[in-house]
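Recall the central idea of this unit: under ordinary conditions, the amino acid sequence of a chain determines the structure it adopts. In this exercise we apply that idea directly, starting from the sequence alone.
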Amino acid sequence: MTRTALIVGAGIGGLSAAISLRKAGWNVRVFERAASVRELGFALLVAPNAMAALRELGVADVVLARGVVPTRGEVRRMDGTILKRADFPPPEVMGGPTVVALRPAVHGALLEAVGEDSVELDCEATGFSVTADRVTLRTADGDAAEGDLLIGADGATSAIRRALHPSEPPPRSSGLTAVRAAAYGAVDHLDGLSGIHYMGRGVESFLVRASDTGIYWGLGLAQELLPVGMRDDPAAILRHVSPRFDETFRAVTSGTTDMRVDELVDRDPLPFWGKGVVTLLGDAAHPVLPHTGQGAAQAMVDAVALGKALGENGNVGDALRAYERDRREKTAVLVAQGRRTARIMGTTNPVACRLREVAVRLAPITPLVKMWAAINRRAGTDVSR
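Accordingly, the structure predicted from this sequence is:
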């Protein structure tokens, strides 16, 4: 008899879980609170560990074809002074390709693999109950769905996480605000570069090519530098800081109309993710700061690990605890890594900023990228087992 998994959330994590569980022989039902299937955000870095997970899910080639493999980049001061120019090491040095892709491209590839008919829209999860080895999911419109497994893949404000951990404190602020967007038709302004990273006092930004015509850009600022009342207005933030940037930044960002602004937050690692036949995945389990470059990647890796655990163990509860043991420590390391990097990149201390510049100038690129790739591998899972 085919068992049924109830998956809350049709983002990258939820869709990845649906593919992985189908491969393990499960029937899947995906519940999405939005009225249409869409992916919030603009683009993402698909690191080698995430590409390995996507290959296991069967969509790596599609994402690779839709994205861009970065080859050459620069680190600059905000005024355009070049601190470092470097070629990225080839994929064989990194342990696989690194791809920058627009989020709709990655999300679309996963959705095509799952099938839109497997996603139930306008279904906001409000809670669940467990009886013996069955779980019932409740939704805001009063409906209920029964299954053998419930996965909360509904993001950092997860309703399933809240039901499992009702006394947990609110998300932890990093003290940073971020504006993110995609610009089209401005690739020529990169002058052949794959990306540019800017550093300033309490400010960092990046421009990175994400498709044939698209540039993903982001801007992070220490909140203490923003005037009162500006933190929720991305256009006002951009106008406020643009004069401090070079011509390249202004040329790429000036025509952007669709932007989003977020206070960057994460959460302390949980003592446990789930109970019985209920577990969490992706940002619902371990939201990290974007400085790790691993938010979406870890959701994909979670999905592969979960599918393998459920395929190897007949008891659902035992399989979920094995999955959680495999993933909890690795993702907790990334939470800590993200906090350290955010403190360094968001510092307003002029001495610390100067030391950061010196480190960037002196550090050779290949060992740094190899170290980043090694961290990614340790935070991943053996998708070949």
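Residues 4-68+103-170+268-346 form a domain with the FAD/NAD(P)-binding domain fold (CATH 3.50.50.60).
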